[in-house]
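Query structure, 243 C-alpha cells:
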C-alpha cells in the first residue's frame, strides 16, 4: 500500500541541532568563564553531550521529568549543588546563545515543498511540545505539519512502538501507510521499522555514520533522496548513494 504521510524527527533531521549546540555552548561557556575548566573547547562539548545523553536516558525511562533532567544536566556539568531556580537560569542563558544559531538543514525546505501536495506531514519528537513547537515556529516550518507529538506529553518515547503508533493514530492511518524519517539508526530507524512504519534513516555522516546500519530502515544521505524512495510524483529527488 502507498505511503500517505511522512512523520519527521526534528533534531538533526530537520534542524541542525549538533551545529547549533556546538556553537551555542561554545559561546555560553565563554560567557560563563567556564572554558578554562577544560583543556579544549571540544572536551567541554563532549562532556556536555555525555551528560545530556545520560540525563535524557533517565527521562526516557520515566526516572525524571523533562524539567528535572535539564536541571541535573546543568548541576553535573558545573559540578555544583544549584537550586532549581539557579539551574533554570543557567540553562536559559545557554538557550539564548543556542537559539541565536538555529538553522534548518539546506535540504529541508526543498523536500517539504516537493512533497507538500503528495503527502501529509507530522512530527514525532522525543523532546517536549513546548520546546519543539516554538522551535518549528522560529524556523518557519510549523505550519507544514498537521500534528506535532512529543514524548514529554505522550508519556512514551521512541523507540517504543507506542510512540510511533500514537502519531499514526493522530493521522488516522495504519503504520504501513506512514513513513518515518529520523537521524538516529536505533531510536528512529529500528524503532520505526519495528513499529511497522516505512523507516528512513537520514545519515548525514555525523555521530552515527561509522556504526553498522540496523536491519529495517532505508538509509539515505540526503533528504533529496526521499521523494524517489516514497515513489512521489515529483521531479525532485536523487538516487540513494547507499544502494
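Result returned for the query:
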Amino acid at each position: 500500500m502507498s505511503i500517505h504521510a511522512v512523520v519527521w524527527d526534528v533534531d538533526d533531521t530537520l534542524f541542525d541541532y549538533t551545529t547549533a549546540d556546538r556553537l551555542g555552548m561554545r559561546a555560553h561557556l565563554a560567557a560563563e568563564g567556564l572554558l578554562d575548566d577544560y583543556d579544549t573547547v571540544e572536551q567541554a562539548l563532549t562532556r556536555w553531550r555525555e551528560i545530556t545523553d545520560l540525563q535524557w536516558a533517565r527521562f526516557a525511562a520515566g526516572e525524571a521529568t523533562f524539567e528535572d533532567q535539564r536541571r541535573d544536566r546543568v548541576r553535573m556539568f558545573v559540578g555544583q549543588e544549584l537550586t532549581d531556580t539557579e539551574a533554570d537560569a543557567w540553562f536559559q542563558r545557554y538557550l539564548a546563545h543556542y537559539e541565536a544559531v538555529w538553522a534548518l538543514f539546506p535540504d529541508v525546505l526543498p523536500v517539504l515543498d516537493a512533497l507538500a501536495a503528495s503527502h501529509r506531514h507530522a512530527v514525532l519528537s522525543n523532546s517536549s511540545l513546548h520546546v519543539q513547537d516554538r522551535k518549528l515556529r522560529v524556523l518557519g516550518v510549523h505550519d507544514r505539519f498537521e500534528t506535532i507529538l512529543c514524548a514529554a506529553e505522550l508519556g512514551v518515547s521512541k523507540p517504543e512502538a507506542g510512540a510511533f503508533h500514537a502519531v499514526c493514530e493522530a493521522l488516522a492511518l495504519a503504520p504501513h501507510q506512514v513513513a518515518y524519517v529520523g537521524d538516529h539508526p536505533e531510536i528512529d530507524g529500528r524503532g520505526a521499522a519495528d513499529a511497522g512504519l516505512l523507516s528512513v534513516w537520514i545519515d548525514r555522516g555525523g555521530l552515527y555514520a561509522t556504526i553498522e546500519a540496523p536491519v529495517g530502515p532505508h538509509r539515505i544521505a540526503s533528504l533529496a533522496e526521499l521523494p524517489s524512495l516514497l515513489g512521489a510524483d515529483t521531479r525532485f529527488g536523487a538516487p540513494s548513494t547507499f544502494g
